[in-house]
């Protein structure tokens, strides 16, 4: 139903030509390879896969491709992922049809377009965490001491201490409590984590 509405909206714009549509990530990836569109509009939720992950893959395979994400989620970590992985636009599903058209037009011109309500001014400065740092952070948030985190991740306690030191530096925290609070604030912990 969302695709039908989107198609109806875009067909009415003379500068756009819809060359295909897909309901899942496998079909979408195949169609992009075959049809080589200029722009892909992706829903962030593709059932059993992530639109953000698909977008990242498509951009890596087709560097000239412009991707615009349509999402019901304004989670900072989703927006930050989009910004850090070359996604040209991010529009919320609650936006007006005029805003969506403006977003597609802007992206088509090679410019980025992020929904006004997202407040993305500081996102570019937020550091990316490695997968291991994210796991350590999650276990810290669960209240585990260094030794138990090391056992769970099958590494030495010294390795965990190094990861925690890097987390303190990256997030500008002075202690564990501050680290957890900043992580929640920046979207590294909590609902909607990638």
Number of strands: 4
> Quick check: average pLDDT?
85
Cα end-to-end separation: 25 Å
**Strand order across the biggest sheet?**
1-2-3-4
- In terms of DSSP E residues, the strand content is 5-15%
The outline comes out as: elongated
Name the poorly predicted regions.
Answer: none
The level of helicity is 40-55%
Oligomeric form of this entry?
single chain
List SSEs in N-to-C order: HHEHEHEHEHHHH
Structural category? alpha/beta
Describe the structure.
There is one protein chain. The protein is of the alpha/beta class. It has helices spanning 2-11, 25-35, 51-61, 76-84, 97-108, 131-141, 146-153, 157-171, 176-186, and strands at residues 39-43, 66-71, 89-92, 113-114. Helix 6 packs across helix 8 and helix 7 packs across helix 8. The longest helix is centred in the C-terminal third of the chain and has 15 residues, at 157-171. It is elongated, with a radius of gyration of 19 Å. It starts with a helix and ends in an 8-residue tail after the last helix. The mean pLDDT is 85.
What labels describe this entry?
194 residues, alpha/beta
Write the layout of secondary structure elements.
Elements: H1 2-11, H2 25-35, E1 39-43, H3 51-61, E2 66-71, H4 76-84, E3 89-92, H5 97-108, E4 113-114, H6 131-141, H7 146-153, H8 157-171, H9 176-186
Parallel strand pairs: 1-2, 2-3, 3-4
Helix pairs in contact: 6-8, 7-8
């Amino acid at each position: 139903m969302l695709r039908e509405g989107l198609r109806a909206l875009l067909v009415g714009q003379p500068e756009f030509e819809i060359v295909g549509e897909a309901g899942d990530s496998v079909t979408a990836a195949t169609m992009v390879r075959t049809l080589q569109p200029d722009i892909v509009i992706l829903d962030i939720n593709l059932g059993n896969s992530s639109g953000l992950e698909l977008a990242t893959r498509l951009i890596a395979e087709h560097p000239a491709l412009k991707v615009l994400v349509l999402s019901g989620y304004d989670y900072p970590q989703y927006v930050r992922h989009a910004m850090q992985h070359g996604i040209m636009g991010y529009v919320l599903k609650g936006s007006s049809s005029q805003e969506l058209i403006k977003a597609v037009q802007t992206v088509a011109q090679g410019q980025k377009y992020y929904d006004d309500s997202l407040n993305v001014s500081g996102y570019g400065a937020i550091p990316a965490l490695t997968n291991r740092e994210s796991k350590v952070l999650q276990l810290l948030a669960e209240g585990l001491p260094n030794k138990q985190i090391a056992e769970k991740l099958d590494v030495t306690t010294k390795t965990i201490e190094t990861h925690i030191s890097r987390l303190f530096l990256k997030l500008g925290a002075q202690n564990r409590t501050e680290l957890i609070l900043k992580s929640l604030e920046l979207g590294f912990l909590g609902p909607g984590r990638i």
